[in-house]
Every structure is written in structure tokens, then in C-alpha cells.
Amino acid sequence: MAGSFAAFEALVARYERPTYSLAMRMVRHAEDAQEVVQETFLSVVEHLKQFRRQSTFHTWLVRIATNHALRVLRRRKRNRAVPLETDHDEAQPLPHPDFIAQWRDEPSSLAQQSEVRRILEDALSELDEKYRLVFVLRDVEGLSTEETAKALDIGISNVKVRLLRARLMLRERLTRQLGDPHTRLPAHGHEDVTSEPITDQTKEGKP
User: What residue ranges define each of the domains in the chain, with the CATH number in brackets?
Assistant: First the structure.
């Protein structure tokens, strides 16, 4: 029993902070995020024997935390019945960037600055919920498209479209904050940014 408790404490110590960060990005409220973390680790204890190593422990934990976060979000909406799934994502035109410019500094160095991380978090918080959830799971937590679709109970095509919209909107916000206005170009449509998430582009030095 003592060994099991020590193992659980080690598990919590390792994953509590990233789980809280995930919860905050999803539910945007500290008390609700704490609730998600508590319920997540209770579920981990109850179902640990069901973990079959068909995925990484991180992916399994993210799925559990996502389920609890979605319960919080649905509880908020129970009086107005707003579903996470819609049938109109693919029919809507993609947003076109209005501000196109080179970044003032190398993205690889910008990624290390706390101010830049704050700007990204602020921009993320302003996304519509359905776009924010997909971006958090797919680009921040690293789930696959299929895993993200399963976690949110939406179609794979919807994941792809919502992710593209989220990336375009976030890149627009970041460029307005970090772009050099002297290099600004006239808006002329958008590029295809489906191949690399913003987080990876930043690490690799691509605006």
C-alpha cells in the first residue's frame, strides 16, 4: 500500500502541472481547471489497470483530462444546449490574413521569451472554443488527427478544418504583435499551413 501511494505521488508530481496547463487552456477558469486535474487523477487511479500501452501514457492521460474538461464545458452550456460539433465548418471560407510581415526577431529566439508565450496564450484564449480545443489537443499536446477527433467526438475532416482556421487566426495575431511593420506586405490571401503546427514552426525558426 505504501509503495502504491508513493508511486501515485510520483505520478502526480510529474504530470500535475502539464495537466493543469491543458485544463486551463480548455476551460479558461482556475477553479474548473483544478477540478479537471483532481478528477483526472482519480480516474487514473481507478482505471490504471486498463492502460494497455497501446498509446503513450501522456496520450492516455490527455484523453482522460480532455473528457473531464469537456464535461465542465458541457455543464456550463446545459441551459443553452450548444454542441461542440457543427455541420458548417467545411462550408465557411477560410480567414485571410490582413497583416503579413517578417517577424522582428528569429522565431526560435522569440519562443524562449515569456512575453511571447503570454501573447500566444492570450491569442489562444480569444479563439472560439471549438477552434481552441482542436489546436490545444493537436498542436500543443501532440495528439494525432484521429486521436483529437476521438477525444472531441467530431469528424476527422472537422479536426483538419478547425485546426487550419486556428493556425491562421493565431498566426495573424502573433504577426501583428511580433511582425516588423516596415516589412509589411499587402494582404493577398493565405498560405497552406496545414503541414506544420505553429509550435513546431516556432521551434524550427519559421514565422
Answer: 2-76 (1.10.1740.10), 107-204 (1.10.10.10)
